[in-house]
Specification:
elongated, mainly alpha, 4 helices, single chain
Length: 80
């Protein structure tokens, strides 16, 4: 979730649920990119470590296979 993405950052952009607050934070990032370089790097590492498309696809396929096996087992048990 959002909390996981923010956990590795020193400067959190979501400072309050107000649009003007977010726009001010984004303007700061654009004005002072060097200040946020550590956040950029750690955020990138976090995304690569936790949201790899291949791993996500394998997890989905594994869940699908388990569900298929469970349905087959339930259907077979009901037919007996």
């Amino acid at each position: 979730g959002i909390e996981e993405l923010l956990a590795t950052l020193q400067h959190q952009l979501i400072v309050s649920p107000r649009v003007d607050s977010l726009s001010s934070a984004l303007a700061d990032v654009l004005r002072f990119p060097e200040k946020y370089s550590g956040d950029r790097d750690s955020g990138r590492q976090h995304v690569f470590a936790n949201y790899d498309a291949g791993r996500v696809a394998e997890e989905r396929l594994s869940v699908w296979r388990e569900a298929r096996e469970m349905r087959a087992a339930m259907t077979g048990a009901a037919a007996r």
